[in-house]
## 1
Amino acid sequence: MVSQNPSLHSHEDASIVVLKFGSSILADERSLPIAVHEVYRHIRAGKKVVAVVSAMGCTTNKLLEQAARFGPSPDPVGVAALAAIGEAQSVGLLTLALDRAGVPANALDHAALGLRTHGPILDAKLDGIDVGRVRAALADRPVLVVPGFLGRDDLGRTTLLGRGGSDFSALFIAAKLHCRCVLLKDVDGLYEADPSENPQARRFDSISYDDLLALPEGVVQHKAVRFAKEHGLVFGVGLVGQPVGSLVGPQATRLAAAKNEKAKLRVAFLGLGTVGLGVFQHVARLPDQFEVAAIGVKNVQKHIEAGIPPILLSSDLDAVVDSPCDVIIETIGGLHPAKELILRALRAGKHVVTANKAVLAAFGDELFAAAKASNVSLVYSASVGGGVPVVESVRRSRDAAGVARIRGVLNGTTNFILGQLEKGREFDAAVKQAQQAGFAEADPSADLDGIDVANKLVVLAREAFGAVISVESVAREGIRGVSARDVALARNEGQAIRLVGRLWRDAQRVHASVAPERVDLSDLLAQTRDEFNAVEIEQTDGEVVKLLGRGAGRWPTAESVFGDLFELAQHVSGSSRRVHAVNTSGGVA
């Protein structure tokens, strides 16, 4: 991971990372989720991300060919303006894909970034960037998506940075932000020779600027390397979802040990509903890293007709747990048989990923004890917040300074319903709309009565304070008593009604509550719309961590579950199938 890289500068900003996605990663629209996974795993780690994107696949070549049809020497001004379309498309699509997964992102074009250039229009050199605007965009949202390969000259004309321009712009932005940069490629690092042509070629763990410049131009263009050398910028080259494969910098060149093929992580699913199917699709996109061993469902024939391979499907959930797998992904929900199946898996020495906050709230002690006894992990980030990394953020605050209190909108379904009430719909119609949108269950009681938020507060109490509290101890009031008239009156007085969960500790004990509250329109919690969640974590040192994003639906929850799986895969040895350590809350240490 990026955190393994040596320091770039003594004044490095460790809170930001620049990730560059080239056309080999963004081959087409179907590859967008892979880029989302990579961005999300850094967001989970508490980073802000600048995602630099190239045009997809062969888009730039096709645009240049289109320009060439206007004559043997088309005007560079028009060529550059036309070529910019490819990067603009990638910026827009990745921003939308991130939003779908619950990750708020800003998008700025090369003009808004202030990427100033000089020299030939089709092979320009970068001069400067508006660092203040970049930092403001990252303060507003945790991800900023920007185009590579493009700049603006003194006249405001679009310019191209030439071959390897996206790598160059990514490194340029990282240098100006004094942060880290990883160039993501379709290989796991830099090699002595093309590994597709020479399987015996060895990978560089690290390589000096000069040694890389002595090699033929390939994965990284020399002008980008020369820029990094001039600015003392250490950068990584690697594959999505993997630790950085090669570090480029002033350090000595070092070859990796003999290539050790890492075994695929074998995954079995319990449930293939809205969330489970989303996770399955993510897993299927990365066949080099994951293998699906079995899928447990109620109706086998239904899923066969939906295109799931029959050999994977079974209605015998115990048999699925007993299948030759390393990780069980539980998305069936409810208390039973989820508890029994999770226990069976943990006791059999298998890791478990779940979004089931109810089973964690009711049986957490027993489940975590079983995980510890078997030296495996029970991971559950998706149990709170959907695509919003609430659990990870609480852990970081706990470890950094300690948590004083937590306050947030933690149920996307009720927030969606309250949003419908703001539009003038009556309560029953709003609930029906939430069901039709896929946010509310056929029986929405757990959401409407605050039970779902209470379960989440129990999970967060363990994370924040190491405290075991019961759902029954949570002071609870749902939203059944809220009407469209109540919402309208609050709005007229400059307020919004939100279902607010609160968690705090005093000298005696941990307290938790959930109830509808009026909040000022300027409040972070009022900024939530539809299925969004928002959380404020106040640390004991007074610092407040604020989070906002989509908290319900297939894509945000599936992204969070897959994020757990992605992280788990980084800690699991291909031979022992054990994580290096298990922390006290059951997550990966």
## 2
Amino acid sequence: MNKSAVLHIPMSQYAFAQSEDCFVIRLRAGKGDLDCCTLFYGDRACVSSPVRFASVTMERRYQDELYDFYEATLEGCHRRICYYFHLEKGDEKIYYYADSFHRELPDFIMEDGFVIEGRSEYYQYPYILRSEVIKLPEWFTHAVVYNIFPDSFADGKRSLPEKGKEISGENGIMSYSRLGGTIRGITENLDYICDLGFNCLYLNPVFCAGEYHKYDIVDYFHIDPCMGTDEDFLELTQAVHDRGMHIIIDGVFNHCSWYFPQFEDVVQKGEESVYKDWFYDLTYPVIRPETEETKPGYACFAYERKMPKLNTANPEVQDYFAQVGSYWIEKFHVDGWRLDVANEVDKNFWHKFRDAVHTANPDAVLIGEVWENAEVWLKGDMFDSVMNYDFRKHCRDFFALQRTTADEFAWNMTDMFLRYPAQVSRGQLNLLDSHDVPRFYSLCGEDYDRFQAAFLYLCMAPGVPSVFYGDEKRIAGIREEEYRRAMPWAQSCGAEADFVRNVIEIRKKWIEPDGDYRIVQADQGSNLLVFERVGVHCARVLIHMGIDPVDVQEYIEGVKILLQKGLEGSTIGYNGYAVVMVY
């Protein structure tokens, strides 16, 4: 037995509560190494001695390149759990608990009929506390998100001037736009978004700021004048909710504009400013450098001199932005926040922000911008979800660049899913595109069949799919000004829109957010991936990223016939590289 491959981590993604009476336990072992893995579990506080254990044979549920992952779900379980594993390979049989291997269970030392030693040596989950069960807002698990970069989208019904403007705000600070998109433009095109099947909007920043992208915020309590008015935004949120949709806005709290009033006070008053502790690494006098070549005397976001970094460990800063967080929920009824550069912000800031937001609306969602493994932020006390850039990375390498084969892609997605408790993984904001990366369509060499295959996977995989505006219209672009280009309203893309609409309909109708995700086939070195989403219905998805779409079409047509005969299924979605079966 390959003991070095065996791993279990208590109170982690290997042992977590899905509800107060449902507990999931996982164990890792070498790939193909074990013949059987049995879980023994009992009430760690039971009065009988020794503990009465029940047993369940664990299912070999997932695998990657090196490991098998066994899983058992305990329904109606004890609130206090102790447990251990029995591993078998051929004639070798051992117990695994307390992070070590044993030939026997521990001897019990008893006094007057009570155990005083022994049971604590097993793995423990002390108590399933209601407050510690991670639960995402129900509406968010059913969301299909349309991400809008406001300046690039619309200023009216199916229109965008593609012309910049300059407007002086009430504070005299100039606000700029590049293409002229407005809040009213979004409102007037909600019918278009709804018709495609999307039920949630995520807007990049809309607050008063200088640059067109609005990530250099001057005023956190008002809409940017280039985009419209506060009244326009209230009309938008009302119209969104009238359609049964939700809306998420972008919160930029790691940094601000160099014209933010509190920073302006520091520039004017130096060390006498009451806001001097609101910012990082100030040197006096605080001067706004006129050129990029001049190093600023303060910490910035990514060395961008126009965006001084906020000291989010400062309780005054935390209180200020907690007020911002609740203000937009209470007054404008937004349904959640996407949180910019979330991994650079003090964690106590997020605790206070979450408390304020959930006091205003317990059902609001918080999504952090964390590009890497976000386990630290997804314990239930900060964020509900993060932008899943690793999802995009794995899709890029398989669908677009063909750097990986189907088995490698399946392994990568499995490892990503197993990072977190299952309900957390099912709530990650999966994406192919955003305002920060080249368009996926361009990475596909503008092969829209490849893009569609990736889009199909996006909507069928565990998680919440997020689509960047215009992907349904074949927007391409590698550089920033390209992938943030104007929404091509005049461009007719009926077939592409139909595909998006059909796939989203399949997801809504047949895919359950908490349904199982099972790899059926991903042969070594092949381009064929077959997986299932299993719940009340079973949706089987076949994707074959071959070289020639014509050959792939013939291949998939043959597979369709076999599946329909063998499984009595029905084909409900298809493109040159992929097919969906539901039975």
## 3
Amino acid sequence: MNRSASILLVEDDQSMLNGMYDLFQMPGLLEKVGIDYAVDVRTANNGQEALNIMAEYMPDLIVSDIMMPVMDGYEFLNKVQENPQWLHIPFIFLTAKGNREEILDGQLRGANLYITKPFASIELLELIRSQLERSFQRQFTNQQNIANLKKGILQILNHEFRTPLTYVTAYYEMLSDSVNRFPDNHNFQEYLRGIQAGCVRLTKLIEDFILVIELRTGEYKSRYQRRAKLIMTINSLVQTAVQKQGEGAVRKGIEIEYSLSPDLLPVYGEPQGLLAIFERLLNNAIKFTPANKNARIYITTETQDNEVLIAFRDEGIGFPQDIRYQIFDLFFQHNRGVMEQQGAGTGLTVAKGLAELHNGRIEVTTQEGVGSTFTVVLPVFSGSFEKPESQPEKPQATILAVEDEASLLLGLQELLEIASEKYALTVLTAQNGQHGLEVLSQHKPDLIISDIMMPVMDGFEFLQNVRQNPDLIHIPFIFLTAKGERQDRHRGLSKGAEIYLTKPYDSDELLQHVTSQLDQYFQLQSIQKQNFDSLKRGILQLITPDFRLPLTAVQEYSDILASGLENVRSDEDLKRSLRGIQEGSIRLTNLVEDFISLAELKTGETETAYALREQPIYNFGYLLCEISQSSQYINSHEYIKIHCTVQENLPPIYGDAESLRDGIRRLLEVIVKLHTGEEYQELEFSVTQIDDEICCNLTLPTSLSENELRGLAAIFANNDDTELVEAKDYTPSLTIARSYIVLNNGRIQLTDAKQICIKFPVYTAS
């Protein structure tokens, strides 16, 4: 029995509370309804007591009365809903308030189930089991989504950073080798092109990441305000984008066709920002159009309803309709396993951010296997630089309606599309459960409304199929049926339907339920999106403008060689250029490796690797000495030496030797960097046991400055690495060092201005 559940019961009638509690102490009864795992039950006599319990104990499910002293069930539910950490917890009202209006009120307040007293014990337990099962499945799906996002981000970073970096380093080595051995080697230009291609690709990636940061922090907005002006030449910007991206289309045999309106009205904006949008959308169209001599990309411009439309239509692979909004998310990539070379998922994010900065938007239509159209929509300049006021648009939502009687289905569709006050609803339809599953294979609605009695596949079987699909587990489900018997209602709710309504139904009541269920659904989706965005922001904040310096250096030196190779091949200029490329390449390599290591820490990948490799380390002291002697960086500084002394017969510590080795090496290299000069200096590194700890003392030759002390102390004490953009150049490496040491149960202390101590607990087999 690996799984367990925790339940909070809230009821002011002590005998009723005791009776419900006793139900969960009957293993035979629990197993009869399918609860074959441990259940921990806590109790409270009112909403306030329940909140006090939840401050220290998060239940998997809540069952609450409504009429209670101090804090009633309604107020308690409101408090639960106000806390984002509790929104996922299923909430069941169990109450004597049982007339139609009271039930509707309780359901619309957001309770997952509304059960009236008196109740049948077995039915209550079945409904609780159903809610728990669905909650566990939702949590598992969310965890899988987060894990997949982390995995996807790391795959992107590893591939998109390391691949172009390989071009730079590998081609440099071949170029350098050719200079030494074959002065007249004709491969020089090919090697240089490889270096430059790697630089261009890596530069674009870094610039896109930094641009996303600037858009999200508002930094780009001030630049936009300085540069924005009246633009009469949208068509010329489109043509410039084609000129800059056209080579990629030519290589794939793709023809670009124009249909540019000569009568476009002016817009207000920043030319470079608009050009960046057009370039990225065109690049996207080229990237996802298979190489084909007959393939085409169509670009059109027109003025329509006081808006200028610039459309990029391709005949590429397309993508599912239900991800047309996700494709603008940072790091999101559809079907990356097949399309390995599709980039880092930044281009559309940048394009969307820039379009919105221009008070515009990007609209998408697509069909798998047919192609996609991305249309930039910009407001026509109205004579005012202020953003035009517009009526707020209703949020969009999609509903799948499943009903076998055509007239009822049409009536339901028209009701939803016309009468909804809060949401602009798109209604998909199906005639039975099987047809509904076929629709769900192509679309992901935000809500499902289904009849029960239907041919081919009835509503119960349809719901069961929906609830068994992890991709659909979050979608709320409303039964709308003529089957009004108590056992039918119980069966529908116990199988996972949120609402059970009987025909003939009250249209206002149905619309209220639709709005309430969509509100809850989007609120939960928003919380998950915030978690995703938080992770993405954490990765973005690891990007540092320091990448630009070595990239620029490598590019400049390779440009020098490319522009005058015949004249510089045998003189000092050639050596200087090669040294510049080499130094830039080394610096780039270090930056990329630090960035990916920080990203692995941020996503938890490092902890996963640690768990696979952790074991007793018996010769830890000698491991540290080996690190201090084998570091190429330390050994390259002739004025710095490290003396290492190790106490004999040291007991083992527990951890991962690989991450420990890297962490200690990074720490030593930062200290060496701080003490590098023209005078000979020695560092003492001693490893001893003090009580139940292994202490590694690093004694410095000279005292650290106050500024250095403050910087090191802040990094050693703080687990938040979000300020790396403004930090010193050694901060990323030292942050990684600290994180690796902490991961191995160690801690770092600044004993004084000349001594750093790292302590690890002694390992005991018990």
